[in-house]
Structure formats: C-alpha cells, structure tokens
Amino acid sequence: MNNDFVSTHGLPGRMSLRTRQHESVVVSTIIYLLYYYLLSFAYSSYLNPVWEGYGFSARPESLSTSQALLVIACSLILPRARNVRAYLVHLLFLLKVIPSAVLYAQANVSVEFAMAVYISFGLVILFSAIPLEFSSRVRIESRRIALIALLLSFGTVAAMAGSGSARLFSLDLSTVYDFRRDAAENFGSALNYLMPIVSKTAIPFGIVVAAVNRRWILVFAFFVISVVLFGLSHHKSILFYPFITLALYIFLQSAGSINAVKLGTLVVVAIGVFAIVYMDAANVSSGSIASWYASLFIRRALMVPVLLDSQYVEFFSTNTPYMWSGSKLTLGLIEPAYDVAAPFLIGEAYYNSLETSANTGFLGSGYAQLGFAGCMIYSAGVGLVIAILNTMGRQKGFAFVASMVSVQMLTMFASTDFVTMFVTHGMVATMLLLFVTGQPQRDTRPIRSHLPKS
C-alpha cells in the first residue's frame, strides 16, 4: 500500500519533468525555424540582390522546404542539458549549420557541401558525448592567474607600442586594412605569436574572474587594454572579444541561459531583417546604419563564413589538397602543392586577389587539408575538444568555462584551421589554464592582499 502511494505520489512530478522537457524541445525547434526563415528572407531580399558578385548566387529552384525539415530533424537530436557541451553544440548549430542550410537552399552550391555540413555536425555531436574524467593535482587560485594575465596583457601592449606601431595607432574601424600589415611587420614574430594568446586567453580569463569577484575596476582595465590592443594591431575582432565574454558570462549564469543565447541570436537576425525591409522601403542601398548593420551581422558574421566553407569544398573537391604540407606537424616532409596558404589560394580563385585572405573554420580548412576525410578528422577533433571542455565545465563551473572559451570556439568554428588554433591561437594555453585553475570563488578580500609581501 505504501509503495503504491509513493509510486503514485511521484508520478506527477516525473510527468511534469517530462512535459517540461518536451516543451523545451518544441520551443527550441520553433526558435530555430524562425531563425532559419528570417535568414532565408535576408538572403533572398538582400544578400543575393546586393552581393551576388561576391558569391551569393541564386539557386534556380529553392530547396527551402527540404532544408527546413532537416533543421527540424537536427534540432531534435541536440543535447538538452545545461552544460558546456550543450551550449557549444547549440552555438555551432546556430552559427554554422543553419546558415549553411540557408546557403544550400538559396544558392548554387554543391551537394558535397551540404553532406559535409550535416555529417561533420553529426560527428561533433557524437564525439563531444564521449565521457572524459580527469583532474589536476595542481591548483592555482584563479585570482592570482588573473593578476598575471593583467600584467602579461599590459606588458604585451607596452612592447607593441614600443615596437614602432604607436605611430600607426588608430581606432577607426574603416581603416584597419590600411595599417594591419605594416603593424604586424613592426611587431615581429614573438609579439605576433603572443597577441592572440593575450586577446583570446588572458583577457577573457581576466574579465571572467574579475566579474566573478565583482572587481569592476579590473574588468574596466581589461577592456581598456583590449581597445589599445585593437588600435595597435588593427584587428577588429579584438575590440569585440571583451564584450562577448562579459555578456555571455552574465547570460550563462541564468537557468535558461542556452535559450537566451538562441533568442539573442534570433533578435540579431530579426533586427537585420527589419533593417533590410527599411532599406527597401526607403530606397537606401548603402551608407546608412541599416545598411551597415545588415552587412556586418547578416552578411559578414553569419553568411560569409559558410560561403567560404562552400568555396573550399568546391575547390578542393577537384584540386589537390594540402595534406598539412604547410604545417609544422609534417616537419617539411610533404612537398607543398601550392606556393601560397589556402586562404590566399581561395582568395585568388574566387575573389581574383592574392591579397584576399579567405580564412575559414574547421569544416573548410579540414577539406583543404585532406578533402572529405580531412573535414571528418577535424570534426571529430572539435567534438573531443568540446568533450574536454565539458568535463572542465563540471569541475570549474559552467558559466565560467563556457564564457571564457566562447571566443576561441567561435574562431575554431568560423575562421581558423583546427590545428592552427592550437599552434598560434592560444587554445593550448586556454586548456592548460583551465586545467590548473581552481574553481573560481567570490573573494571579498582586496586585491592587494593577494600580492606578495616585500
């Protein structure tokens, strides 16, 4: 009798949990479908008419419905937990898979591209689910590392300014390409190697730890360093990294954080669609805020990376792959198939300019290295990286790890070769830092109490 009562008494709770899970799946699928159709509208109404000469072609017969069904199918297999894996897989789906579905449905791109996208996404989901358990015997207080990160960031900026690049300092976003190459030549190899580690590892780490401890002066200091770093290096992305990191840390602390990221991306695209409708109604083609917004967020942030992926797949489906001949991994044992790196090769092939660096993420760069097999190898690698970060998220805290690695994972998804991420973009430094860092705890002691006594 008592067992029956307990079983019956517990049933509503289990049903309620199951109902909430089903509701979450339905809400998530609706968000993704709205996102897909808004982006499709932006493509047909803006990207194809305005940017067709840059590769945004029109398919004779749209495949919009079939791709929408695939978006629904993919949304049903996404992880639902509130952890680093679920967050990064949903981020990949938002920023790569759905824009790729839109491109394949609307543009004249190959079926090989679509196959690569969906199979690679499946491999990321599969390998990211591998349960990994590890721990470090070394534990360094996160606030101490944050202070070291601050000193390293300040020292790097001072060295860059002293290299002769101070005369090229500019915060004008429209002139970055005029000074970037000259600035890089002034820095030399050491500073060029250190700069991405500072901008993508040290500064995000310092911002998150300072935010955990409510040290807003330190947060402000890291923001100022980022602005100066942008002015010296002329890399636009450096200017946005701190804002992305802090905003995500604040977002990801809430219970519905992953849905908040989805809704935030949906709002960004919705604003872009309104901007496109406004430009059409007001007969404005360029020079307006609406035009700037649509070009930056719809074209450059969301659709250009997947367009480049499709061009890499198309080119290396019929041409010799690099087989990592330009990488230090092969020790120079493989004869390079080309005289230039893949981004410049694609820039010449599709944009008629050897000066154009058409950087892409793990999908396109994997295809450049070893065709379809290279793409699959890189996809499995991305999945394993996510699995490692997921374990670290359980140990150090979801919001802490997810916000700190977001910038680098976005880079891995959209603009850098997978191996290069570890060699020159600070991914190794980030993972080592997370490995030895203790779980950040809010500390009310003043910063000076952590400094060594003289």
Could you describe the 3D structure shown?
The chain is mainly alpha-helical and 454 residues long. It has 15 helices and no strands. The protein has helices at residues 2-51, 64-75, 84-106, 111-128, 142-162, 176-212, 216-233, 236-252, 257-282, 289-318, 342-351, 362-396, 398-414, 418-424, 427-436. Helix 5 (142-162) runs antiparallel to helix 6. It is globular and about 60 Å long. The N and C termini lie far apart (72 Å). 42% of the residues are buried.
Summarize the structure.
The chain is an all-alpha fold and 454 residues long.
Number of helices: 15
* Range of helix content: over 70%
Task: Please report the total strand number as a whole number.
Answer: 0
The arrangement of helices and strands along the chain is HHHHHHHHHHHHHHH
Low-confidence parts: 1-11, 444-454
C-alpha Rg (nearest Å): 23 Å
Silhouette = globular
**Major sheet summary line:** none
Averaging pLDDT over every residue, what do you get?
A: 87
What is the beta-strand fraction?
A: under 5%
Secondary structure class reads: mainly alpha
Kindly, what is the distance between the CA atoms of the first and last residues, rounded to a whole number of angstroms?
A: 72 Å
